[in-house]
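dumping this here before i forget
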Amino acid sequence: GQNLKPVRVDLSGRFSFVLLRAADANGVHKLLVRGQQGCTHDQLLQNAQREAKMEATTQRVPPARLAIIATGLMHWTSDTVNVSGARVVRGVDSAVRSNADAARLAGGP
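structure:
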């Protein structure tokens, strides 16, 4: 999962996002943010899983294991990003303990 882009989101508009933890076969973790207009949180996870499988095939390694750490809404304008409604999935990553942590890691203030 080390070659997965850390952030892959729409560059404008309002959309759902997921904060994911990717873990490779060696236990190395990486945080990912994925967001796209018209997608549910489950669809964003499925898209990221496909991305991880394609990367694994290219690199000839097992695919990264992905887990949703948090979900929410993101709103991009020409010069700002606002993150709202961030919700932490408890027990997935001890470094993300609050909804404010999730919002900050996803790109909010």
